[in-house]
Amino acid sequence: MKIVIAGAGEVGTHLARMLSRVNHDIVLIDEDQENLQRISSQVDLMAMTGYANSFRDLQDAGASKADLFIAVTPFEDRNVVACIIAKDLGAKRTVARVNNGEFLTDKNRERITRFGVDEVIYPENLAAREIVNSIKQVGTREMIEFSGGKLILMGIKIRKNAPIVNKTLEEISQINPDIRAVAINRGTNVIIPHGKDIVMSEDIVFFITTKTNQNLILEISGKELFEVKNIMIIGGSRIAQKAAEKLGDQYNIKIIEADRDRSIKVAGKLGNALVINGDGRNLELLKEESLEKMDAFVAVTGNSETNILACHLAKSYGVRRTIAEIENTDFLTMAEGMGIGSIINKKLLAASYIYKYTVGTSVSHVKCLTASDAEVFEFKIKTESKLTQKPISELEFPTDIIIGGIIRGNTGFVATGDSQIKVGDLVVVLTKTNSINKLEKFFK
Question: Which domains does the chain have, with CATH numbers?
Answer without folding.
Answer: 2-121 (3.40.50.720), 227-319 (3.40.50.720), 351-443 (3.30.70.1450)
